[in-house]
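Budget justification aside, the reviewers requested a transparent look at the raw inputs and outputs of the sequence design task funded under Objective 1. We therefore reproduce one unedited record. The lines immediately below are the structure tokens for a 592-residue chain.
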């Protein structure tokens, strides 16, 4: 018997019509959920429940790209909990969704609009000894669940294969062997040696037992033997041995069995980005361009930081205490002698040479940067043009079956090669350059004072991690919620303007204006949070920088640094520290 449940939730202000909700309280015959697939874009466009008889139940509207991480239920596994992030709109099913099974496995899908704000989340759980077989979603709101009693576990009377416990670890040793010629061995003997042809999966409740089995299988060192340890709770490969192609084959089979998840195609890790960069730099000209651009960025960063030291010296050149470290800038004397008098008669010779050195450093810094922009821009756009042409040629060369099985949105999305190319060819060089610049800044600061440099770096990291990062995450969540409201308001306007004839025929103007007014009221209420958080973030950021440098100055007073640091060095240290804080934030942005 089907049961519809709704956990007690606090009343929410909503602009969707209660009269439009579906009546799901009717009896529905039980069908085991075999898999759940997701189509996503900025939100969750479509949620599809596929049952054992291959029938489907869909929530949302077609659109977006299919997520490669499909929920595939293993034997005796079923859905018990759903956490849904609301996304009030006419087309998408959710902003984000999390599925939890009776084995404790979590399948999380969080596109760009996922905010993780508590007031946006709805968590519904199945009753004891029941499983979730469908959802009741209306206009991006999860209203209720459709439940059925859980069937008996297929191995509940088998002591060697007891019912899984969600609190216990779950490891699988997966082995793969090609057809072998050991005809003198029985099937049991081949199984013991790990010589059975094809993919074989063995389940274990502890990593120790799984590792022992892994060791026994790999110790045979038979040709074509690939062995993996899979953590089915984390749905990832822990350890593997064998040829790379065989390992990939075993992982693909494990994905089909629902033991692990595939990679999230929407997320680009640093490792994957570097691998993609290596593939994009396949031609020798690409490698030369990359090396040239990275060297120009590093050189520009060096002179940018060195300019801070020169600026500090220039600003304090009338202070007699700063004349003790004049040897640091003696390199400018030969250049000054070409243009000025170096006979020693001019009492302001050192100051004039310093001004010339300051000008030369600033010009050289700017020249290196614009040279980088020139080569970088040309190289990136030429690569975009080539990859677009190659991608278009590749798509047209595919068989008709490809176009029959893929939507136009997926095909067009796969042809956006410039987005990947720009991310790799722009983001990674600047990421590496920011790292180099941080190391150079740390070197210059340490050369001035080790104590002050340690306090400055430690305080910067502490402020970023403890203050600025939480505020930035909260601000990002609020902006995503604002985007969700704006999307819904745009949908109301577009729908009303496209259906003006129908609206006038049935006099439904009030229905649409009420919906739009409620949406605007939500936007106005949310606007207070956005503006308040912006004020707090900007206030905290500006004062955090002042606090960090105040700590540096305080330690310079109470410590031993005041006797070794001149006014010129302190001014240069302050300028370096300000740049270091900006570079740290830029590095964090490129990393994310």
């Amino acid at each position: 018997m089907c049961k519809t449940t709704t956990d007690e939730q606090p009343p929410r202000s909503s602009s969707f019509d209660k009269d439009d909700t579906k009546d799901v309280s009717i009896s529905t015959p039980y069908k085991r959920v075999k898999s759940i697939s997701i189509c996503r874009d900025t939100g969750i466009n479509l949620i599809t429940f596929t049952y054992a008889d291959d029938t489907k139940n869909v929530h949302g509207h077609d659109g977006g790209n299919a997520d490669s991480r499909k929920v595939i239920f293993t034997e005796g596994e079923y859905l018990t909990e759903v956490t849904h992030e609301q996304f009030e709109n006419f087309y998408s099913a959710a902003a984000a969704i999390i599925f939890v099974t009776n084995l404790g496995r979590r399948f999380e899908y969080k596109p760009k609009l996922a905010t993780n704000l508590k007031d946006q989340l709805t968590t519904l759980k199945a009753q004891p000894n029941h499983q979730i077989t469908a959802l009741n979603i209306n206009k991006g709101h999860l209203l209720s669940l459709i439940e059925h009693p859980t069937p008996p576990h297929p191995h509940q009377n088998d002591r060697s294969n007891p019912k899984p416990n969600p609190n216990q670890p779950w490891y699988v040793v997966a082995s793969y062997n090609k057809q072998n010629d050991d005809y003198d061995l029985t099937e049991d003997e081949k199984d013991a040696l790990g010589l059975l042809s094809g993919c074989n999966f063995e389940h274990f409740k502890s990593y120790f037992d799984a590792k022992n089995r892994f060791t026994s299988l790999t110790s045979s060192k038979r040709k074509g033997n690939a062995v993996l340890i899979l953590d089915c709770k984390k749905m990832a490969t822990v350890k593997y041995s064998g040829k790379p192609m065989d390992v990939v084959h075993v992982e693909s089979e494990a994905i089909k069995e629902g033991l692990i998840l595939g990679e999230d195609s929407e997320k680009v890790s640093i490792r994957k980005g570097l691998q993609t960069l290596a593939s994009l730099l396949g031609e020798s000209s690409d490698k030369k361009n990359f090396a040239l651009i990275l060297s120009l960025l590093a050189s520009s960063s060096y002179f940018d930081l060195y300019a801070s030291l020169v600026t500090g010296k220039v600003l304090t050149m009338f202070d007699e205490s700063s004349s003790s470290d004049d040897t640091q800038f003696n390199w400018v004397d030969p250049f000054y002698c070409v243009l000025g008098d170096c006979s020693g008669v001019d009492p302001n010779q050192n100051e004039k040479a310093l001004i010339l050195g300051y000008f030369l450093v600033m010009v050289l810094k700017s020249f290196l940067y614009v040279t980088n922009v020139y080569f970088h821009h040309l190289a990136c756009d030429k690569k975009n043009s080539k990859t677009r042409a190659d991608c278009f040629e590749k798509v047209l060369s595919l068989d008709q079956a490809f176009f029959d099985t893929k939507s136009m949105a997926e095909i067009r999305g796969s042809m956006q090669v410039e987005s990947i190319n720009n991310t790799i060819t722009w983001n990674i060089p600047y990421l590496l350059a920011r790292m180099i610049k941080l190391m150079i800044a740390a070197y210059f600061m340490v050369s001035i004072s080790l104590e002050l440099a340690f306090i400055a770096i430690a305080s910067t990291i502490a402020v970023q991690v403890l203050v600025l990062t939480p505020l930035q995450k909260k601000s990002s969540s609020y902006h995503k919620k604002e985007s969700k409201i704006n999307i819904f308001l745009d949908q109301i306007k577009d729908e009303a303007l496209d259906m003006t004839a129908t609206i006038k025929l049935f006099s439904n103007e009030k229905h649409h204006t009420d919906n739009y007014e409620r949406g605007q009221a939500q936007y106005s209420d949310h606007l207070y949070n956005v503006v308040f958080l912006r004020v707090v973030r900007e206030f905290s950021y500006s004062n955090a920088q002042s606090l960090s440098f105040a700590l540096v100055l305080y330690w310079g007073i109470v410590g031993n640094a005041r006797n070794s640091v001149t006014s010129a060095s302190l001014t240069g240290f302050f300028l370096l520290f300000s740049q270091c804080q900006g570079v740290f934030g830029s590095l964090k942005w490129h990393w994310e």
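The radius of gyration is 32 Å. The mean pLDDT is 80. Computational costs for records of this kind are itemized in the attached budget.
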